[in-house]
Design goal:
The chain is mainly β. It contains 1 helix and 5 strands. It starts with a strand and ends in a 15-residue tail after the last helix.
Length: 76
């Protein structure tokens, strides 16, 4: 997670995504992964990162199997 001085940055490209106060109004992917005993990571290791929408699109383009898409019918 790349957040400094109240600003959220993309971990992949380093671009400023938004101010933390605006995080609920901005499109970006926030990832938090807790690694367990059967991974190759150190037990209990937690990785956190934020990915801007542009980098997300580039990442998804490289997938052999694309992510499942569903359309939301209600917005809260």
């Amino acid at each position: 997670m790349s957040r400094k001085n109240g600003i959220i940055y993309c971990n992949r490209c380093g671009k400023e995504i938004c101010m933390e106060d605006w995080k609920d109004r901005t499109s970006f992917l926030a990832i938090r992964k807790e690694w367990g005993y059967f991974s190759d990571k150190k037990d209990g290791m937690i990785h956190s990162m934020d990915i801007c929408e542009t980098c997300y699109e580039k990442m998804v383009e490289s997938f052999v199997i694309p992510p499942e898409e569903k359309k939301m019918t209600e917005f809260v």
